[in-house]
Design goal:
Number of domains: 1
Helix content: over 70%
Shape: elongated
Structural class: mainly alpha
Largest sheet: none
Order of helices and strands: HH
Distance between the termini: 10 Å
Length: 69
């Protein structure tokens, strides 16, 4: 994958982390890192779910390879 996808992913994760931290008014580094970890896991789970869906649709012959990824 291109490096721009990594930068976009990084910016999405950091943006969501800062936004959630601001809304929850976190004060400590531990709270911020906990939110960062949860956002990263959620983002990874979403990407893996999309990849799995894409693979399933290709295996069933509903879509062509490269449909999502």
């Amino acid at each position: 994958m291109s490096i721009r996808f990594y930068w976009i992913s990084f910016l999405i994760v950091m943006g969501l982390t800062v936004l959630i931290s601001w809304v929850k008014q976190t004060r400590t580094r531990k709270e911020f890192l906990t939110i960062l970890f949860k956002v990263t896991l959620g983002f990874a789970g979403t990407v893996l779910a999309l990849w799995g869906l894409s693979t399933l649709l290709v295996a069933l012959g509903i879509s062509k390879s490269g449909f999502i990824f």
